[in-house]
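Example S7 (structure tokens).
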């Protein structure tokens, strides 16, 4: 039996995106047909103010396709250049009813969100933390690349517009054999460079999806997209630079802007333990609870050692997104600064991966330190007690 799935459609978002990018209203039947590839549809709801503009013509089409139009009044309040700004009451109601559905229908394993709005990232994270599979369908050009990375699967709306699905499936299988994904990666970087757009990993992958209709690095033997890009760098096709805690992708012969090389170093904690005037810093024992310190050290210990600053701070951000830490980005940097000063974390010069051409500064948790060992032992004991309950 196929898994049950529920569909939640941010109609305003998908409508505006398809009209802006393709000059056409959303193809409801194509969306439903794609969703059925992931399971049996047991619930489908679309959210909008159906009295607003062209939205008023949509309910009959939605009803005929088994989708329930959910009316939410789009309220306005003064402000902005136009003196009227729209509230996000539609997004809030979609998220609230999705969470309510999650609790009342535990048998539903897959959730399809039709939107490109990055504000739904917390909802995606919540669903996935409850063991649900999340599929996002959206217009690639108008979808937050962070939302794409948060979901289990992203389906580009452009891939739904093919008139003959059988012919498209045959073409897709042929295309997978013929198209060189590494060449498409280079094309994606070139396109983003030409458009003067950000080239972080998520944006590059999003561009590849636009070019190829769909792309999954796992189809080519890579667990993560970063591993795919690293392999391309090993082949001399691209080069990567750490900047602002994210990996940026450049062409091999491209001159890297000077500020990009230095920005990450300015964000990294000071390795000599020095403080600026008036900077009292963070105290690991005074400003963090034992639980927070255990969680941080255990998470860093779970990384490949030594790890880059990007990997360490990304792991701390993941803890924050899961609600295990309540720290701002600046406080996370302060925590790592304090770990370095206390000697819990030590900088080492090493190559980030075997084929890298040069060493870089990585950071290793001093597991031989008595203090660190006590923290990790306490974390293991707490985990064992939790498992025995």
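Recovered sequence:
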């Amino acid at each position: 039996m196929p898994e049950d799935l529920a569909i939640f459609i941010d109609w305003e978002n998908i409508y505006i995106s398809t009209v802006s990018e393709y000059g056409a209203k959303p193809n409801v039947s194509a969306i439903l047909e794609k969703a059925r590839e992931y399971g049996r549809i047991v619930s489908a709801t679309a959210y909008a103010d159906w009295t607003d503009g062209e939205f008023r013509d949509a309910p009959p089409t939605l009803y005929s396709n088994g989708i329930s139009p959910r009316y939410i009044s789009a309220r306005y309040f003064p402000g902005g250049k136009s003196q009227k700004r729209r509230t996000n009451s539609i997004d809030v109601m979609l998220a609230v009813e999705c969470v309510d559905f999650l609790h009342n229908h535990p048998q539903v394993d897959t959730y399809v969100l039709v939107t490109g709005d990055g504000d739904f990232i917390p909802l995606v994270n919540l669903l996935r933390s409850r063991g649900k599979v999340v599929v996002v369908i959206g217009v690639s050009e108008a979808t937050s690349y962070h939302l794409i990375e948060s979901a289990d699967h992203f389906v580009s709306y452009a891939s739904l517009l093919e008139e003959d699905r059988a012919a498209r499936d045959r073409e897709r299988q042929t295309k997978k054999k013929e198209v060189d994904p590494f060449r498409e990666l280079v094309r994606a970087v070139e396109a983003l460079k030409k458009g003067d757009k950000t080239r972080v990993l998520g944006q590059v992958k999003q561009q590849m999806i636009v070019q190829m209709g769909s792309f999954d690095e796992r189809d080519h033997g890579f667990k993560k997209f970063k591993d795919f890009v690293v392999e391309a760098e090993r082949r001399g096709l691209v080069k990567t630079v750490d900047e602002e805690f994210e990996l940026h992708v450049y062409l091999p012969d491209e001159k890297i802007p000077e500020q990009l090389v230095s920005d990450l170093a300015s964000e990294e904690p000071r390795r000599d333990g020095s403080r600026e005037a008036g900077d009292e810093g963070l105290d690991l024992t005074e400003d963090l609870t034992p639980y927070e310190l255990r969680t941080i050290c255990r998470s860093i210990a779970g990384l490949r050692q030594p790890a880059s600053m990007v990997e360490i701070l990304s792991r701390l951000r993941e803890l924050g997104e899961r609600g295990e830490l309540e720290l701002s980005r600046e406080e996370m940097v302060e925590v790592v600064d304090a770990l370095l000063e206390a000697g819990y974390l030590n900088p080492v010069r090493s190559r980030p991966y075997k084929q890298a051409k040069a060493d870089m500064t990585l950071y290793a948790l001093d597991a031989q330190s008595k203090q660190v060992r006590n923290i990790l032992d306490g974390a293991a004991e707490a985990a064992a007690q939790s498992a025995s309950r």
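Notes on this example. The two ends are 34 Å apart (CA to CA).
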